[in-house]
Amino acid sequence: MPKIIFIHPDGRSETEIEAGKTLLDAAQKCSAPMEYACGGNGFCTTCKCRVKNGRSNLSLPNEREENMGIEGESGDRLGCQAKVFGDAEVELVE
To answer: What is the CATH topology of the domain spanning 3-92?
Structure first.
């Protein structure tokens, strides 16, 4: 199973998650402080995060992310939309 590491103001959290689950699912599993005001539907940017390592192990940015101005080249993603297929290190931005 892919290993996801979250770097956040409170420190560091990590978990293993089934392939195909989202970064938000992984954050919730390990109690990393990722917000999600729209319920994980990709209609806000509260779960916006920055992928530091392992971008190629995530799904490509989808239409919902593009509509919210997320392009992926910067490493920014919406945690509720980015599906995990391999290891990644993610910074939670405030």
So the answer is: Ubiquitin-like (UB roll) (3.10.20)
Per DSSP, what are the bridge partners of residue 77? 49
- Hey, what are 39's tokens? 């319920």
Spell out the residues 6+ positions from residue 91 whose beta carbon is closer than 8 angstroms to its own: 6, 7, 8, 49, 50, 51, 52
In tens, the pLDDT along 2-40 reads 999 999 998 999 999 999 999 999 999 999 999 999 999
All residues at 6 or more sequence positions from 84 whose CB lies less than 8 Å from its CB, including other chains: 2, 4, 17, 19, 20, 21, 22, 23, 25, 26, 57, 58
More confident residue, 27 or 74: 27
* Residue 14: strand pairing partners: 5
